[in-house]
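Hello K.,

You asked for the raw outputs rather than the summary table, so here they are, unedited. I folded two proteins back to back in the same session to keep the settings identical. This is the first:
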Amino acid sequence: MKEDNNVKIRVSQLEKTFRNTGGETTQALVSVNLEVHEGEFVCLLGPSGCGKSTLLNIMAGFKRPSRGEVLIDGRRVTAPDPRYVTLFQNYGLFPWRNVLGNVEYGLEVQGVPKEGRRRVANQYISLVGLDKFIYNHPHELSGGMQQRVALARALAVDPEIIFMDEPLGALDAITRIRLQEEISRIWRNKEKTIVFVTHDIEEAVFLADRIVVMTPCPGRVKSTIPVPMGRPRHRTHPDFVRVRDQVYVELQLEEEEILDYHS
C-alpha cells in the first residue's frame, strides 16, 4: 500500500439518501470513509443493492452526496472531470463510429489534431489486441471486444483515475476471465489509479490491491482486506484461495448478521 501522503481519493463521512415520488426516503450510504492511494487498484465488493455503484458514481462526480464529501488530490468532487473516466457495463460506444473512431473520440473532444489522435488511438487499440478490427463497427464485434474498445477509449485520453462499474458483468465466464487478465496486464503497464465495482469475489481477488467489503443497504464499509500477492495471479495458488476464503467469510458473516437482525 502507498504512504498516506499519496492519497489520491479521500471519502469522508459520506451519506446518500434517495427520495421517491411518494416522499419516502431510502438511505443508500451511511458514514462511508475510504482512502484510495495513487496507482492503487481498489475493488468495491458487495451484494446487489449495497450502494457500491452509488458510491462509485459519487466519487466520479455523477451524483452528489447528501452529506460528507469526496476529495481527489485535495479538491472536492462536484462534477465529472476530464482527469478521470468511467467505464460502465453497457460500453457506451457510438454505433456509427468504427473502432478507430470510437477510440479517437475523447482525443477529438480534447482538440488533439487528427494525426496525433490517430497515432495514440492506434497505440491503445494495439494494447487491447484489436489491430485486425480497427475499421469494424460495434455491431460487428463480440461483447468482450466491445468492452476492449471502451477500455482503449478510456486509456487513450490518459486519465489519472479510471472508475469501473461492473464492466464485465454482462460477459460469459470465459470472456470475463480473459478480460480480467487483460485489465490486470494493462494496470501493470500503465499504473493508473482504478476503482472497480464488482459482486464477484474471485474477480476482486484477481484484480485488487485492496478489497473494500460493503454491507447491504444502507451501504457502509464493513472491512478492507489487503491482497498481498504479486501479478500475474493464479486462481489455484494457496494465497489466492486464502484471500478468497477470507472475503467469503466476511460476506457470509454479514448475511448472518442481517438474518439475525430480522429474526
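The second followed immediately with the same parameters:
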Amino acid sequence: MPRIQLGASLSEKLAQSLEKSIRSKKLRTGEKLPTENALVEIHGVSRTVVREAFSRLKTLGLIETRQGSGAFVKEPPPPEASKLKLIPDGSVDAVLKVVEVRRALEAESAALAAERHNTKDLQKIKQAMRALDKAVAGGGDGVSEDVAFHAAIAQAAGNPFLLDTLAYLNQFLENATRVTRANEATRKDLGDDVRDEHLAIVQAIEAGDAQAARQAGTQHMVNAAKRIGHADPAFWRSQGLALANRLRADLDVKKLKE
C-alpha cells in the first residue's frame, strides 16, 4: 500500500492511497482492510483521519464496514456510475439551474467557514475580494477572481468533499459566472449589489456567525438568480448569446476529446 504524503487533508490523501490500491487490485474484492490501529501506525495519522477516509471510500462504493469485523473491499462500481452528467448550454434556464446548485454549496461553505476559519483563511478570503475589486476597477470581467473568492471560502470550510465537488463543478460554475457577471456589468448598481453581498458574507465569516454567513450566502445566490431572470432581453440577444455560443463550443470540444 503506498504511503501517503502529509498535507492539508490527510483523510483525503489516505482515502486516495487506499482507493488506488483497491482499483489496481492490490486490495481485492472481499479482502479485509488493515485495522484502524494498523493504518494509524503505518501512516502516522489519527483515528479520526482513518475514519474520515473510510467514510469517503464508503461513499465511493469501494468498501463496506461490518460491525465488529472491520472494513472490507467491495467490487468497484464501473467508472461511468460515478460521473455526473451535466450539460449546461448557456441558456437562461441552464444558468439559473447552475445558480441553484451554487446556492446550496455557497450557503453551506460560508456557514462552515464562519465556524472553522483561522486567521490565514480569513486573509485569503479578503485578498481574493480585493483581487476581484481590482479586476473590476481595471475593466475586467472578474470571472476568475469571483470563482477564486468563493473557492477561498470553501477552502476555509475545511471539508475535502465540498472542495472536491466544487473542483468538479468549477468548469460549469465558471461559465455560469461569466454569464452572470456579464449581465451585472451592464449596470453599475448591479455590480455594487454584488460587492455588498460579498462583503456581507465576509463580515459574517469574520464574526464567526454561521447563521448569518449561511443567510448571506443564500441571499447572494437568490439575488444572482433574480438578476439573471430580470436581465434585459437585449442582453441575451447580444452578450448572453455570444457567451452561450462560446459555452456550447467548449462543450463540443470537450465531447470530441472524450
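The mean pLDDT is 76.

Happy to rerun anything if the numbers look odd on your end.

Regards,
P.
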